[in-house]
Write a structure and sequence with these properties.
The complex is a heterodimer of chains A (407) and B (402). Chain A is mainly alpha-helical. Chain A has 15 helices and ten strands. Chain B folds into two domains: 113 residues, no CATH class; 235 residues, Vaccinia Virus protein VP39 (Rossmann fold). In chain B, helix 2 packs parallel to helix 4. Classes of the chains: A mainly alpha (407), B alpha/beta (402). The interface between A and B is large, with 133 and 128 residues.
Chain lengths: 407, 402
């Protein structure tokens, strides 16, 4: 044994001294962090753990990271059979604790079973990350981890059941969680979780509608400028019976009798006649404006709707000059300004869409349900798109007969 | 996308047609809006009217960034003028909610996350902090108050599943914000449950709808249990708490005795300048032009998802400029301000090297322009910067022991 080790020859306490620790007895013994109660607990110093030559050869003094490597080396010295044997090595199992006090493996009850393991753990968790992947900047403290990562970084592709390919694992996972392919897979199995959300099925239309319907004052400002869109909106209103600020069913109908909010404001007398230009055409709009493409395609900006060589009097500069004239002419003061004014008492309470406190219990699993711990490879299989329903058919109540399940 | 037709040029300020540098002309909306703010502060009604008229002529939500900005601000200003801001806002929200479906919400969120790290930055940082704080725990309860429709959780579920020997039990309680419709949240819940089952993580999902304001959330509504380790995840949440209720809200969070509170917010100050229209407008214009510019550069020009995000942006501007109190609040604060509030009950905890590495790796996968900058001075946490401007702030907090 190397001289630098600080050895605590003590037994680890009973793995379950504290009810808040996970009940170790139910798990397999050689899982990390669940040591054999009979083992000897070794606490090595950080320096020792990071050292690369803890095991020196007594013949030539060469240092090795692992005992196995030292043994292999010793064979090369052609020692007589007797000396090949290790002298006084205890057959007793050793477990190692992490020297970092805040670490969970500092507790002997969570010690790790082999030296290489504790060295890697210490290095990974508490060591300096010297190795960096040049493709994705991920950093590693252990060189072998870095090497392993570099081999697969960027090469891995993830395919969802729905057919989409991803190069990034995180976007694949997020996609998969919400993907309809996942939903369909278990739809047949679970009647309680039906997917048919009638609102979403009509969503293609609502998508279109979202694109077209504008909640603001533009449709009233320049009806000539966007004739196509206006038509579509009107058409859609008939079809869906609603548009952003038009009257919906329900309580909004009372507030907005088929008009936009701006009109409502105007009707309420809040907007002075001086702002009546809101309801007129823009100066820059032209009577025929058929250069507009449908909204889902590219919608040209205001100015490209003008002919290619706009006459000087519709250029922006001229516009402003006109504005200056318009502004100068009108003399009546602007009432109902940004100061306080008598507001019509619109029942703003109608805006609240929540009726009361609602707590939706969407408990998916009752406490009887038992889950089986997955290993990493199974996880990979599932994410790889294998459609096997690992938990079998009938997911509502899973009561696996095996006692080795989830608590 | 920018119109380069040489025959037109954008005017900068009405009546003040000084010859300007062509590059300067691109920022005409900001200047116009600022002039408007000044006019409002000066109560110069004819000038206000005048400027609104000009804005109206030049604005369109279908144009370039300046035209959009002009359009949204005009809408907000008119709402403000008519003292109908709250009404407009809640109408817009409920209209949007009615039109929204799980499919569109999903589409918008996932596409946004694909082209921009604006939300994923906060997710990766928060999940990293949560994983670290919950290490060794077997029963987790995450209280999720966020505006990202649970897109944060699949990667966390995967991390929990592959954590090692013991996969903990996870309970997720989502506090639904104003624009998140019931049917959408239910569908999201169903998907989360299925996915958790696929991952082999024991899972429970609840949605809590708040009736009044977020600031009045109580412990009872969340249904905490005795033996669980709690994490509170606030993404775009704190700004929705009414300003006068914010300090109390911090105390409410502390009373939940969480292991960690993760906070992600957008870096802008719309709070201290509440009374001062010029400063408030300036902050708004600055922030939203960065945001719109980012959207422009991240999405394809005709993207419908971008359009929906812009609509949300216009609602947000209305919320900030035209709503004062009531149920509507979107008053952002900067990191240093949030830190001042949080340090009353919490102490900041640093993100570990793994998380930093993950964040850097995350940013590598997006277009140029994004970077990670640690907060300095009296702010803790990390900033996501876009073209050297800090835009999103992520931090993690532990309660100070009494």
């Amino acid at each position: 044994m190397a001289g630098e080790a600080v050895s605590k020859a003590s037994r680890p306490p009973n793995p379950c001294p504290d009810p808040s620790l996970p009940p170790v007895v139910k798990k397999k013994r050689n899982l990390p962090g669940t040591p054999d109660p009979e083992a000897e607990v070794i606490a090595l110093s950080p320096r020792t753990l990071l050292a690369t030559n803890r095991f020196p050869c007594e013949i030539c003094g060469k240092g090795f990271q692992r005992d196995q490597n030292l043994q292999l080396h010793r064979r090369g010295h052609n020692l007589p059979w007797k000396l090949k044997q290790r002298s006084g090595k205890e057959p007793r199992k050793r477990v190692y604790v992490c020297p970092e006090e805040s670490c969970i493996h500092h507790n002997p009850a969570r010690a790790l079973g082999d030296l290489t393991g504790i060295k890697k753990h210490f290095c990974r968790k508490h060591g300096e990350k010297k190795w960096k992947c040049d493709k994705c900047s991920k950093r590693y403290a252990v060189q072998s981890d870095w090497k392993a990562h570099s081999k697969t970084c960027g090469t891995r592709e993830y395919r969802c059941d729905c057919g989409v390919l991803f190069s990034r694992r995180d976007s694949f996972i997020t996609h998969r969680a919400f993907c309809d392919a996942l939903a369909e897979e278990t739809a047949r199995v679970s009647a309680a979780y039906t997917m048919t959300n009638t609102a979403s099925i009509g969503s293609v239309d609502s998508l279109l509608q979202d694109g077209v319907a504008t909640p603001n004052i533009w449709k009233h400002l320049s009806p000539n400028l966007k004739p196509n869109i206006m038509d579509r909106e009107v058409g859609q209103q008939d079809r869906h019976g609603c548009s952003s600020w038009m009257g919906h069913g329900g309580r909004l109908d009372n507030a907005f009798d088929g008009t936009t909010a701006m009109s409502e404001i105007n009707h309420a007398g809040l907007v002075d006649s001086q702002l009546s230009w809101i309801h007129c055409n823009k100066l820059s709009s032209l009577p025929t404006s058929n250069t507009l493409k449908p909204l889902m395609g590219s919608v040209p900006s205001l100015f490209t709707s003008l002919p290619h060589r706009p006459a000087p009097d519709v250029s922006a500069t001229a516009l402003l000059q006109k504005a200056a004239q318009v502004g100068a002419i009108s003399t009546t003061p602007f009432s109902g300004s940004f100061g306080p004014s008598e507001c019509q008492n619109t029942s703003a309470g109608d805006g609240s869409v929540f009726d009361g406190l609602l707590i939706h219990e969407f408990a998916a699993s009752n406490t009887d349900e038992v889950y089986i711990t997955r290993t990493r490879s199974m996880l990979r299989d599932c994410l790889g798109g294998a459609t096997r329903d690992f938990l079998g058919v009938g997911v509502q109540t899973l009561c696996q007969p095996s006692a080795n399940g989830w608590i | 996308m920018r119109n380069t037709d040489p025959c037109h040029h954008h005017p900068s300020i009405c009546c003040l047609l000084e010859p300007k540098d062509p590059r300067e002309e691109e920022k005409w909306a900001a200047e116009l809006i600022q002039e408007c703010a000044k006019a409002i502060a000066d109560k110069d009604s004819s000038k206000i009217r005048h400027l609104l008229w000009v804005l109206n002529e030049l604005a369109t939500p279908y144009g370039d960034c300046d035209q959009k900005l002009a359009s949204y601000f005009l809408q907000a200003l008119l709402g403000r003028a008519a003292e109908a801001g709250e009404l407009c806002y809640t109408t817009l929200i409920s209209a949007a909610e009615k039109q929204q479906s799980f499919v569109t919400a999903r589409k918008v969120m996932l596409k946004f996350q694909e082209v921009s790290p604006w939300t994923t930055f906060g997710h990766v940082a928060s999940n990293g902090a949560i994983m670290e704080a919950m290490e060794g725990e077997s029963k987790l309860h995450i209280v999720d108050i966020s505006n990202t429709y649970c897109t944060q959780w699949p990667t966390l579920l995967e991390a929990l599943a592959s954590r090692g020997s013991d996969t903990p039990h996870l309970r997720l309680t989502v506090v639904a914000m104003l624009s998140m419709g019931r049917s959408v949240m239910d569908e999201i819940g169903r998907r989360m449950v299925k996915f958790a089952r696929l991952m082999g993580v024991p899972f429970e999902f609840h949605v809590v709808s708040i009736v009044s304001t977020l600031g009045q959330l109580t412990e009872e509504e969340l249904g905490l249990r005795k033996d669980e380790a709690v994490a509170v995840n606030c993404v775009g949440a704190l700004r929705r708490v009414r300003v006068e209720e914010r300090d109390a809200f911090m105390r409410t969070l502390c009373a939940l005795r969480p292991r960690v509170v993760t906070v992600v917010e957008e870096e802008a100050d719309f709070t201290t300048s509440r009374g001062d229209s010029v400063a408030c407008f300036q902050q708004c214009v600055r922030f939203y032009s960065i945001f719109l510019g980012m959207l422009e550069e991240s999405f394809s020009p005709t993207s419908n998802e971008k359009f929906l995000l812009e609509k949300e942006c216009s609602r947000s501007i209305l919320g900030v400029l035209a709503c004062n109190g009531g149920g509507v609040c979107e008053r952002r604060e900067k990191a240093s301000q949030w830190c001042e509030r949080l340090t009353e009950a919490f102490a900041p905890t640093a993100f570990n090297d793994d998380v930093i590495g993950d964040l850097e790796a995350l940013l590598e996968r997006y277009r140029e322009g994004w970077s990670l900058v640690p907060a300095k001075g009296n702010a803790a946490g990390l900033y996501l910067t876009w073209k050297a401007e800090p835009v999103v702030w992520a931090s993690a907090w532990k309660p100070i022991k009494p």
